[in-house]
Amino acid sequence: MNIQLQARKKWDRIAKPLHSLGLLEDLVVRIAAIQGTADVCIDRRCALVFCGDHGVVRKGVSQSDSSVTALVAKSIAEGTGNINLMASAANTDVIAVDLGMLAPVPGTVDRHVGRGTSDITEGPAMSRQQAEDAIAAGIEQMRVLHEQGYRIAVIGEMGIGNTTAASAVTSVLLRLSPEEVTGRGAGLSDAGLQRKIAAIHQAIRVNRPDPGDPVDVLAKVGGFELAGMAGACLGGLKYHIPVIPDGMIPMASALAAVRMEPEVLGAVLPGPVSKEPADRLILDSLGLTPVIHAQTALGEGTGGILLLPLLDMALNVYDGPHTFDALKMEAYTPQEESE
């Protein structure tokens, strides 16, 4: 019997209507398959926040300048950031990873492969070798988590300008126009949104990224932290750690990872869907149904962290004593639905 079937049968022994916890049951079954056991365990969990800066910020595509990346990364490293405050309520550790900020930030894990990307409206964000190095850094970070005993990871980000890069990556990989995939990020005005869309059009025109080559797309119009998060998704598959991408930017990275290795999809848990239009488009393209519809757009992993308490509650039922056998009650059986 395969692991998914074992987990499903375990759910069906619980004294309740079949599949009555809906998507939460599906996620537990999905985690079982990733972890390779029906005895699902997510007792040690981590939020990885991948940080990087973007040269395209100089084109006025964001409300803040790049200095904010370092400020927020510093607060996360010190344990006072928004993600830290939310993670503490979910018994979750937080690790900030520097993939390419403009300057080092004490307390972050240094995996940088560059100090800020180049302006994608003028040329590639980075070299292909740098993209490959950033992907490898994300995989390596997941190896470290595996060795430290972590069982599940939220994938978050911090990088002013990265909604522009993620929208560009999504536009190319899904073969949709920038207008279809681009939102207001951290709160752009109408004029700012138009500058952002124009910058993405120009970046795609200048760099001509290959939709069939996700590494090429990440190198030309992506970002260091986007490539790192793609690597984290690949590492989730390799090290049997389910990952929860937090919103559109990590989901763009997850999409790139799935294009590199389709089996990665099995390691991705759909938690939140954000306000960014690309997020829903990516989820739909991957056949994933989000659980949380809170219109989150903060980033840092804050949307993804919301899924963990829900999974804890579901697992209390999954592993609990309230079974048909314990109650000496006849089990529910699947019923045909009338047309």
Short description:
This protein is an alpha/beta fold. Helices cover about 50% and strands about 10% of the residues. The model has no long low-confidence stretch (mean pLDDT about 95).
What does this structure look like?
The longest helix has 20 residues, at 128-147. The protein is built from 15 helices and five strands. The model has no long low-confidence stretch (mean pLDDT 93). Helices cover 48% and strands 8% of the residues. By secondary structure, it is an alpha/beta fold. Strands 3-2-1-4-5 form a five-stranded parallel sheet, with helices on both faces.
- What helical percentage do the residues reach? 40-55%
Note the run of SSEs as H and E: HHEHHEEHEHHHHHEHHHHH
Read across the widest sheet, the strand sequence of neighbours is: 3-2-1-4-5
Termini, distance in Å?
A: 32 Å
Radius of gyration: 20 Å
Question: Which tags fit this structure?
Answer:
five-stranded parallel sheet; 8% strand; 48% helix; 5 strands; globular; alpha/beta; 339 residues
Strand and helix layout:
Elements: H1 3-12, H2 22-35, E1 45-52, H3 67-78, H4 82-89, E2 93-100, E3 109-110, H5 128-147, E4 152-158, H6 162-173, H7 178-181, H8 190-207, H9 214-221, H10 224-238, E5 243-245, H11 248-260, H12 277-286, H13 302-305, H14 307-318, H15 324-327
Parallel strand pairs: 1-2, 1-4, 2-3, 4-5
